[in-house]
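User: These chains co-purify. Model them together.
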Amino acid sequence: MSAGTEVAGPLPDVEPSAPADPPRRGHTARWAALGALVIGAGLIAVLATRPPAAVTEVQNPLVGRPAPPVSGTTLDGARYTLPRAPGRYTVVNFFAAWCEPCQTEGPDLVQFQFEHQRTGDASMLSVVFDDTEGEARTYQATIGATWPTLVDPSGDLALSFGVRAPPTTFVIAPDGRVVASIIAPVTAADLDKVIAEAKASRP
Amino acid sequence: MSGRRFPLWTLLAVVLVVALVIGSGVLSSPPPTASQRAASIESVLRCPSCEDLSVADSSAPTAVTVRATVRQLVAQGETDQQIETYLAGRYGSSIELDPPASGLSLLVWLLPLLVGAVVVAAFVAVMLRRRAATDADPTGAEADRALDRAALDQRKRFLAQSLSDADAEYLAGDLSDKDYLALRRRDAARLAAVEARIGDLGRTAVGGAVITDDGPPPSPVDDSELPDVPPASRGTGGAADRPARRTRGRRSGWFLVAAVTAFAGALILAVSLFASDRLPGQTATGSVTLSQSQRLQESLAEAATEEDDGNLAQAADLYQSVLDSHPDNEVALAQLGWLEFETGQKGDDASLISAGQAKLNHAVRLDPGDYAVRLYLGTVLLQLDHDAIGAVGEYRQFLADGPPSSLLLQAAPELRQAYQEAGLAVPAEVPAD
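Assistant: Joint model of the two components:
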């Protein structure tokens, strides 16, 4: 091995020299940081100026379009079909007896019906959403609802209106278009306002 | 280096693409049945009233309604797109679990792609830069110079020591010829490589003053050098051994390529052999058990329908197909056993009867409490063995399991017969004539 070791021979010590391209690195990092900053700022700007999610979520795709066909059996066992163009404003209210917000809006619906019965420009229609007929009948009798209430055991009617949970209320114009969908307990005043606005936009 | 990297990376890319193509099922997916189609649509729809579940996973009334609607629309021949559009027209686009690929939601789809592209680009850039460096410096001297001189010297001393130790051990008889040669070959090669680096280092540093040592090339070591040749100097200098080193590098590169190929091939084979069938719309075969049990239930339901319609041969085929894949399916065993027994009775075919009995006995071992098996076994005892008492024993267990009233009505004549022949009172739950 002696010869082998000698091979290394008289070697001057070598400084392990650094690779010769250091300055470019810093620039790359700077540009990358700047790019990330610009993208981040852009995102913040776009997201901040958009309407909040709550508003867009509630926007029902049916609004402005003709209402789906409404027909079925009422709690009294009678057939009921809402005409394609009902000729007056129709408030379609999906409810369940177990749903507490429905209970808060019940008296307002009764009041609304009472007020518009005389003028004849609007009427109520209820649809049972995920509840038994018996419960629904008792509930409607308790609040004093005298308008037709459709049973919807298959949920098809709720599906055709895209109802996710009770209470959901739709206002259908005399020509049969859906003018509003409200996913919250409504008051008689809310409904009057919706109808007044709809009348104003289309006299 | 570049000669070795290129095929390896290309090969990995090819393997990846092939695996993805096989995994995606493009090559082997049969046209989906109606219920498979419905299931795949349901799995991408959000349950309207529970938000975080798919319609397929939810039992909420709204989800049940959506499922029924999807199945109805599928039956009417609507396309997947039409069905999704119909539902989105009612519930809004949020009914789809996947965010829409438009507007701001497009970001959700594009960002991962963008990040992936940046990572790939960075990787390629690094590889290219590395390759450019190697190409500009083909002997690798530039890179080697960066290595610490002291570290190289230390490594060299270690290897030299290791070689002389091996010689000593060999001469002392502690090492076999084979081991000694292998050890020597390995260490000599390593030593040569280290010395070559040191040589390069010295040459460049001294400015062309190449240190030479005209020893023999470091490897391979011949057997003829052994055994009494004392550990000779294997040292070489300069670039003399570089070609040898590079050849070795290339060869091991090809070994690596072959190994990776073999591994990937085996992996693909294993995946394609053991993966279950993918349902259309399924992106992976993850929910294997669910889809299999679903298909099983469908086959059994179909068989039961055929049986009710009097198509006994079709029903038997369906039960048999279930048993082919699930030999311990109790329902299929019981039903097919009964079918075989009945058919055997009619055709006076003893082998068919005993095959049916064997299946029924197998089924009752699997689920001793199942009313259907008990009813069948009781009837076998009654009709084949004329063993009314044994039949009553089975019928008691049949009644204990709470059979549906329709079945009870159907079986009533046999039950009454058995109880009467056994001299026992017919239980109250057996319908009278």
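The two ends of chain A are 109 Å apart (CA to CA).
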